[in-house]
Amino acid sequence: LSILDKYSHAIAQLLPQDISIIEPGCGSGKKVAYLLAHLVNVKTFVPFEISKEMLNYSLAHLSPLFPELVISPLLGDFT
């Protein structure tokens, strides 16, 4: 988290516009929130999680923080 806190603005400047972010093992969504706070043109965020509870938690956490962001959750595993 400290790396994202320190470098998320610089990382965001390196990414192209109109991107979709897919995060395997998104957990609570806390890490990606650091990055999303600095991105201006994200089309979609796809949290991918094996745990339905954690997926619901991340949606509840991220949706109010980024109301304009399209969040398309994906429940499953890597098989």
Query: Given the structure, what is the number of helices?
Result: 3
Taken in chain order, the helices and strands follow as HEHEHEE
Gross morphology is globular
Poorly predicted ranges: none
Q: What structural class do the secondary elements suggest?
A: alpha/beta
Distance between the termini: 28 Å
Percent helix, as a range, is 40-55%
- Biggest pleated sheet: 4 strands, parallel
Which radius of gyration do the C-alpha atoms yield?
Answer: 12 Å
Counting DSSP E segments of at least 2 residues, the number of strands comes to: 4
Strand content: 15-25%
Helix/strand layout:
Elements: H1 2-14, E1 19-24, H2 30-36, E2 42-49, H3 52-65, E3 70-71, E4 74-75
Structure characterization notes:
With about 80 residues, this protein is an alpha/beta fold. Helices cover about 45% and strands about 25% of the residues. It has 3 helices and 4 strands, in the order H-E-H-E-H-E-E. Strands 1, 2, 3 and 4 form a 4-stranded parallel sheet that branches. Helix 1 packs across helix 2. The longest helix is centred in the C-terminal third of the chain and has 14 residues, at about 50-65.
Describe what is shown at a glance.
The protein is 43% helix and 23% strand. With 79 residues, the chain is of the alpha/beta class.
Keywords:
43% helix; four-stranded parallel sheet; 79 residues; 4 strands; single chain; alpha/beta
